[in-house]
Structure formats: structure tokens, C-alpha cells
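Table 4 source record.
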Amino acid sequence: MGRDTEEGLEAAKLLEAHGYDALDTDVGTYDAWWWNHPPMYQEKGLYRTYCKMVKEVVGIPVF
């Protein structure tokens, strides 16, 4: 299995609480390598929605 969105958001909060200065957000997975490195045919800004979700729950920079 993997993490779902809610678990990822909780992890972001914990990382901030433990002193992280910024978070690099993606939706990478070992099962589908292209999620880590989207090919040219994927829409531009593919992860912006997920970055926004993280930004809404932490106060540190998200990229």
C-alpha cells in the first residue's frame, strides 16, 4: 500500500513540528516511476493541487 492524502498531510505537520524549514512535495511512488518524473505528455503543473493542500496545513515553504 502507500500513504493516502490524509496521511501525507499529517506527515507534513509532523515534519514542520520537528523543525523542517521547507517541504518538497510530490506524489512519487515505487509502483509507477513516472509519477516521480512525469513525462512530457503529462499536463504542466501536475502537482500544484497537492502542493496547495500541503501549504494549507503548514506554515513553512512548500515547493
